[in-house]
Design goal:
Blueprint lengths: L8 E8 L2 E9 H6 L6 E4 L3 H5 L3 E2 L1 H9 L2
Antiparallel strand pairs: 1-2, 1-3, 3-4
Length: 68
Amino acid sequence: MENKRANCIIEVSVDGVNGRYAVGIMNMRQALDLPEMPSLSYTHPDPVKAAAGIVVSRKELAGFMACR
């Protein structure tokens, strides 16, 4: 059975010296397939929280994928 959360759209950003810069918009599975880099952050999978600017770590994003 496919995890429907894997298709939730998020924005991936890189945290730099001058702030956050968008890398791309992708689904959670694609985001977790990116190489592990401590400078990456991910918008919250909940659209309301994402619109409020809440970001999560890779570990937290993987936790959302584990929930069904």
